[in-house]
Amino acid sequence: MRRFADEQLTVLDLQADPEPATSRQATVYVAVVYGTGHAHPDHARYRVHLTRFDDRWVVVEVEATP
Fold first, then answer.
1. d(C-alpha 36, C-alpha 23), whole Å
2. How many other CB atoms sit within 10 Å of the CB of residue 50?
C-alpha cells in the first residue's frame, strides 16, 4: 500500500482470494484497484505469502502477478 501512497494514488477497491492455508503458511491473491480520481482507474495484482509466528500472521514475500 505504501507504493500507492508514495505515488499519490488512492486505493478504490481491494479484493482478496485466499488459497487453502496450512497451520503455519498461507497465500492470498490480492487485486488492488487504484487511481488518481481524475482518470480511469487501473489495477495491480499481488500474491502475498504469509507465515504464522506465535499468534500472528507475518508477510514474508509479496510478488506482483499478471
1. 39
2. 19
Question: What CA–CA distance (Å, rounded) separates 40 from 59?
Answer: 30
Record the pTM.
0.74
Q: Which residue has the cell 477497491?
A: 13
Question: What sign does the CA torsion over 25, 59, 12, 39 have?
Answer: negative
Name the grid cell of 28: 492470498
Digit-coded pLDDT (tens) for 31-60: 998 887 777 788 889 999 999 988 899 999
Q: Which of 52, 48, 42 is nearest to 63 (CA)?
A: 48
